[in-house]
Task: structure prediction
Amino acid sequence: MLILGIDTATDQVSCAVGGHEGVLASMRTARSRAHAETLAPAIRFVCEQARIELDEVGVVAVDVGPGLYTGLRVGIATAKAVAHALGVPMVGISSLDLLAFPVRFSSRLVAAVVDARRGEVFWALYRQVPGGVQRISEPTVGSPDDLVNELRIVDHEILVVGDGALRHAEVFEALTGVEQAGQGLEHPDASSLVQLAHARALREQFVGHEQITPLYLRQPDAVKNFVERDAPRERGR
Result:
């Protein structure tokens, strides 16, 4: 069973194709949020590199967030369109799960942190289990200080990973027992998406395209700005 993985939750766009043999081809690029222009050529590229036709794909996997609103819309809409056209099921996986997966061999508690802009971050905590990691807190949005306050009460060494951790590195450096993951791990990646989706597909834990929904955790910037703009008018009435 071949799986096409699509990830556009952050500034990075990544695609991958793989199955029981592992990841056959992958690519990733960051072009200042040019998700729509980048994604279709990226899908063609990974299919060419894997030497497969798109119609050989049996499952479409997609990062459902949390992440950048526009990026999520592009990735999920494209993934749904491909799955619908091919008549295949889908797997949706959180961007935070995808960040934690590559550091699954760490004995530390893992804090996966995605930059949410507006001075906020999305995060969740994970612990090592046989074969991977297990999420032990619900995905949350808040300030870096909110996350720091949560980490202060954790009686365990912590590894922070993600572009949110790098953007606010000085906040986490003040904590004892906290280590930053290195460069190259700051974004969710479609290779991890394919690996996690393959395990779920083997257990037939997939859904129809209509059941895939984005995990936003907060209002889009445009909606928030509209509400804040109109609030003074409402108070003045």
User: Anything to note?
Assistant: The longest strand covers residues 120-129.
